[in-house]
Amino acid sequence: MTITSPPVTDAARRLTQRHADHPLRGIALIVASTVFLACSDTLAKYLGRTLPPIEIGWIRFLVFLLIMLPVALASSESPLRSVRPKLQVLRALALVASSVLFITGLRFLPIAEASATSFVAPLFVTALSIVLLGEAIGIRRWVATLVGLIGVLIVIRPGSSTFNPAVILPILSALCWAITLILTRMISGADRAVVTMTFSALVGFLALSAMVPFVWVTPSWTDIAIGLGVGLASTIGQWIVVLAFRYADASALAPFSYSQLLWVTILGYAVFSEIPDAWTFVGAVVIICSGVYIAHRERLRRKQNVAPAEPNPNP
């Protein structure tokens, strides 16, 4: 899975301001996180040869839940006491859908192509912010979003002989991830982070547990080991992302988060002998440039909101 800047609460913003004087440390952490996330995706694709996507997702969320349990139990308050429990459940289900859709896409697509296509998530966030958050989106961010969509078309090339209909799966995964981020913004001011993480792990595990009996394939010990690696690498990668944003601003880290494409390309070639074509890289560059610009405009918008005496520019 690709990574996207987490929503910033007032408390998180104050914490970031205290620690944002170590940008190199933040950049190093974000690059390290992409290595773990790329390894998780590669292991998931490899495991997809023998296990169905829902079962792989179930193992991933099982590991997530096992890691979260000690944290939740150590919390001074109930980790399930939420001000907005319905939104927490919806967020967790969107996260599950994003994970399963992406893993399914990996079964049919080269890992670099699936990853490049999933970078469209920030573009969906921009569009959904209007509907769900009532945000005003300026012409510059709309143009950047359209440019990003052009990049997606370059990668998937509909109508050509190389078009694979399965490419819709990472796009839908990115849409579900964007919904997850939007719901996180709506929740972040009401619930503690440990509550959100606990709901994600528990609801995700329960939802997949209800589905996995219908597709169950008894895994070998090797499959179990690889599945644990998927969950562990994914959880470590996401945790490092949280650490990275303590040391640098999102706009500074955004360009380096896309280094995940480099790692999945290397791993895709080493493990699956996959070599992306030139158009995949061209489209990925267009998508990445669009995402970086949107992150830059978001940073300017947040600065403008902090300074009430100045007029609002186009976001």
From TrEMBL:
Ranges for domain EamA: 25-156, 166-290
Organism phylogeny: Bacteria, Pseudomonadati, Pseudomonadota, Alphaproteobacteria, Hyphomicrobiales
InterPro entries: EamA_dom, EmrE-like
SUPFAM superfamilies for this protein: Multidrug resistance efflux transporter EmrE
A Gene Ontology term for the protein's cellular component: membrane
Keywords linked to the UniProt accession: Membrane, Transmembrane, Transmembrane helix
Organism annotation: Rhodopseudomonas pseudopalustris
Annotated Pfam families: EamA
Annotated protein name in UniProt: Permease of the drug/metabolite transporter (DMT) superfamily
Transmembrane stretches, start-end: 23-44, 56-76, 88-109, 115-134, 141-160, 166-187, 194-218, 224-245, 252-272, 278-295
